[in-house]
Amino acid sequence: MPKSVDFLFTPFRVGKLVLPNRIVMAPMTRSFSPGHVPGANVADYYRRRAAGGVGLILSEGVSPNEVTAVGTQDVPNIVTAAAKAGWKKVAADVAAAGGLMGLQLWHEGPYRNPAKSEFPDVPSWSASGVKVPGKPLWPAMSEAEIETAIEEFVAAAVATKSLGFSCVEFHGAHSYLIDSFFWDQTNLRTDKWGGDWRGRTRFACEIISRTRKKVGPDFPLLIRLSQWKQQDFAARAAADPKALEAWLAPLVEAGVDVFHCSQRRFFEPAFEGSDLNFAGWTKKISGKPTISVGSVGLSGEFTATYGGEVSKPASLDNLVELMERGDFDLIAVGRALLQDPEWVQKVRGGRMSALKEFSREALATLY
Ligand SMILES: Cc1cc2nc3c(=O)[nH]c(=O)nc-3n(C[C@H](O)[C@H](O)[C@H](O)COP(=O)(O)O)c2cc1C
Q1: Is 46 a catalytic site residue?
Q2: Domain 6-364, CATH 3.20.20.70 — does that match?
Q3: Inter-residue contact 41 to 32 (CB < 8 Å)
Q4: pLDDT attached to residue 367
Q5: N or C: which end of the chain has fewer CB within 10 A?
């Protein structure tokens, strides 16, 4: 007998925001926004997940500027009037379907490939111009560029609120711009933006604290973090719990409400000697609510699916056990929800045999 999933359907409160259940749609880039403008098909896609009972939808990564933040075609921004109008419709449609949604703000930083971007002559931005450790590709960001990037994130977060969304998430994971400051392998700066954890978190903290001043106390600010890096899946940005504490403390002081702790497999322990995962440790150390993620309801992890591996539906027993134990508060679901807007209802109704396997063909359609 599978374990009861009732716990997943208990409400959870973040400040004044009450989520009806514990299931979050993970941010997933879909590249269906020509001209960087989300259209009616994008609004329909998110509306279907709201109607399908997702507790909180997090959008695909959204660029806070038109030049350095994005090298990927058809990725939406939140800069132009047309893109803002597109997002306003998304927010309204999701709300009309009874859903809650936040935008994920994503600056590709060193993972923007200038050659493939619309501005090939503009170097990519990152803490030290490093994508692969040891091989600087571009100049380190200047003080003025850092200031510009911070203010662009803040403006994008303010727009997210004013367009009708319930929260905002800053993408601080997976080696992109914010993460290039966190990780000591890609942040080699010796000024106030580098050095120890206090210095390496300063860029993110400025974004968070300046946003907080503009959006007020009740608009939840989420940040996504990952120990793993695209350059190195085995990397550990924080080598031990003490380092994790040094990473989290400045972010908590700056005003983070929820930590979204990215793993490729949620059930893997973060440090030796405990079975707590990254979200578990982050909750324990920071005292803040956390979201976990990674291979929920599927047999394989997401990067392997790009290579063609097919993931089969998998039991949720382990997930429910960790959540009932209080390890973390919310669980993000990526691919299972990308391909099936009714995944939540199927899980709630115990219709496990109706769950589908995931293959990369699902990426080609926006249903
Ligand atoms: C197609 C696709 C696009 C993704 N795009 C993003 C993104 O824009 N921002 C982000 O933080 N993570 C992104 N991810 C990672 C997911 O948010 C999630 O962490 C990952 O898929 C693991 O969850 P899953 O095993 O339930 O799919 C993406 C994943 C997929 C499959």
Answers
A1: no
A2: yes
A3: yes
A4: 96
A5: N
